[in-house]
Amino acid sequence: MNRPSASVVGSGPNGLAAAIVLGQAGLQVDVLEAEPIPGGAARTMELTLPGFLHDFGSAVHPLAAGSPFFSSLPLRNHGLEWIHSPAVLAHPLDDGTAVMLERDLRETDASLGVDGKSWSELMRPFVKRWQDFAVEVLRPIPSIPKHPWLMARFGVSALLSARSVARHFRSERTRALFAGLAAHSFLSLDEPLSGAFGLLMAISAHAVGWPIPRGGSQSLTNALCRHLGTLGGNVNSSSRVESLVSLPRYDLILCDLTPRQLVTIARERLSYCYKRQLAKFRYGPGAFKVDYALRGPIPWKSSECLRAATIHLGGSFEEIAASEKAVRNGQHPDQPFVLLAQPSFFDSSRAPEGKHTAWAYCHVPNGSRVDMLGRLEAQLERFAPGFRDCVLARRVFSPAALESMDANLVGGDIGGGAMDIRQFLFRPTWRHYATSAKDIYICSSSTPPGGGVHGMCGYHAAKLALSTFRSG
Ligand SMILES: Cc1cc2nc3c(=O)[nH]c(=O)nc-3n(C[C@H](O)[C@H](O)[C@H](O)COP(=O)(O)OP(=O)(O)OC[C@H]3O[C@@H](n4cnc5c(N)ncnc54)[C@H](O)[C@@H]3O)c2cc1C
Q1: d(CA 237, CA 244)
Q2: What is the pLDDT of residues 173-195, one digit of tens each?
Q3: pTM listed for this prediction
Q4: What is the pLDDT confidence band of residue 254, given thresholds at 50, 70 and 90?
Q5: Pairing of strands 28-32, 5-9
Q6: Lining residues, ligand 1, CB within 6 Å
Q7: How many C-beta atoms lie closer than 10 Å to residue 201's C-beta?
């Protein structure tokens, strides 16, 4: 008897996770990837000068290192090595100091002074039970929790805005730190759920750290591809799928695509009603990103910043809140909140000896054409005077440039769609991974649990596809 077969369209972390689940179940899997290199937004390339390796998309990987599915795979045997910087995160302030997020909860407790106790009391229950917690938060909601008390406890704060959660803290320094964490949500810090992102980022920092893969995010992708190879699966790059009609016959098709591309390639196979639901899907703000080749380390005012791979540049809670609110209102902030990674400081494979790389982005309205370079670098100069003098080369990615290298980054949206309450519950529709066609599923970050490199969208989609396929 022939083995059942599946095609996965798109080789981002969710496409590869789906392909591995299908391969583990014994299906013959072909992954079809539009770009010449697999990985989607988890790729590493020489984007500036020879010898400087830059992460095109994801750089820092708490959710990959803490992913229930990725953790179950022998990725280390396929070359994946996580590197932890001594501190998780630095948040420099104008007085020349930096608020530090340490991985060890007790050290953070000590470093946050008056707020140390409130911080650790808020995070500890979830840090201690990360394995249970990760399984719950990285799956579709609503579903019946396996750990109801833990999730009820999380839900109390998580549904709040970041501003409400920050009321736990008395010091402006801690509030600033929390604002930077919550701003990963791309939501206004006054919106419900923005608090949940801040908490999840902090909890992951203490539970698993915010590691970078040696060699860049491509190392994670390569390890996933190699593991898929051991299960008999293939990844075919430079194979853009224009229409599912042109594909050979497969028993299952999983699409690591956002709703817009799904409709384009599966138009003939989807019902009118489902396509109307997908048309209502809302994309989130975009990213304006810059990769730097540097002649030396970044000249931070606070030397503490040299202990962390990730730096949040935005100043106080109120400044970050104003920046994120402006973006949500379709405006371009004068002082954008900037997320920066300095991987070469902890991974010498990323740049020639003595030289460095930096990766930075700020949030902009979806599809923005405004050049934010000056404003982004002004934030860098604010906390690292002389930064511009260190730049050997830079590569600027507008939202359109990001999308041109990964079609899922619609209008520069790096999260696969806005994560407001509606799209938190129904992502991309009430069907989640299923579509109106029995053999077609969607498995990208436009499905639960959403953006970030964790592979759990692909994992859940493939599990559902398999159980439906087997039940005939
Ligand atoms: C600038 C940036 C910074 C980020 N930083 C982080 C971070 O530090 N940490 C983190 O965890 N996450 C980060 N993310 C988010 C993370 O990278 C994404 O959430 C994640 O990659 C989503 O995975 P995915 O598989 O759903 O989609 P993608 O990674 O986008 O992969 C989709 C794939 O589908 C392919 N494709 C699209 N259309 C077709 C077609 N018609 N035919 C064939 N193939 C097609 C694309 O080429 C792409 O390879 C970042 C993203 C970006 C862009």
Answers
A1: 17
A2: 999 999 999 999 999 999 998 99
A3: 0.96
A4: very high
A5: parallel
A6: 9-15, 32-35, 40-42, 57-61, 63, 240-241, 256-257, 261, 265, 287, 289, 361, 402, 406-409, 414, 416, 444-445, 451-453, 457
A7: 23
